[in-house]
Sequence to fold (176 residues):
Amino acid sequence: MMKMNYFAAGVAAIFSSVACAEASSVVLYGIADVGVEYITNASGTDKSLFHMRSGNLSGSRFGLRVNEDLGSGAKAIATLEAGFNMGNGTSGQNNRLFGRQAFVGIASPAGSVTLGRQYSSIYDVMGNYDPMDYADYGVLSHDLGMMARVDKALKYTGKFDDVTVTGFYSFGRDKD
Fold:
């Protein structure tokens, strides 16, 4: 009889976790961007350069975004995003598996708090104003203060009608 109770408890645990998983939102997404580039007068010489280039307009990536309703307007959120090279399949961002973004947090009507590797608040606010956005030739790719993904970061973002309030702190920024 005791074994039957353990079996019933195990089955109940399995089905209760399935029921919880149905309430969550998990999105798998990605971009595969590769182009052909032709440059004349490469490296200050009369030679031209013709090659395949990964991430001309937008860095190639795949990611997982999780949104779990906790009730009372609160949600648990998480993002894992990996960059990769279309030419040879290697990981981007110094060979990190989830080098683009890797963070968890809580979102509510009062704003969201996230922890982990994520974009800086400056990028969140100013990134929309660069017409080239993520492209290799955009201004954001040349100014790491703007484009930076920052490690060990704590970020608060609140949107109140037309006003956005944000705060950001990193416990140790990496070089990429």
Q: What stands out?
A: Residues 17-22 have pLDDT under 50 and may be disordered. The longest strand covers residues 149-160. The longest helix spans residues 2-22. Helices lie at 2-22, 92-95, 121-126, 144-147.
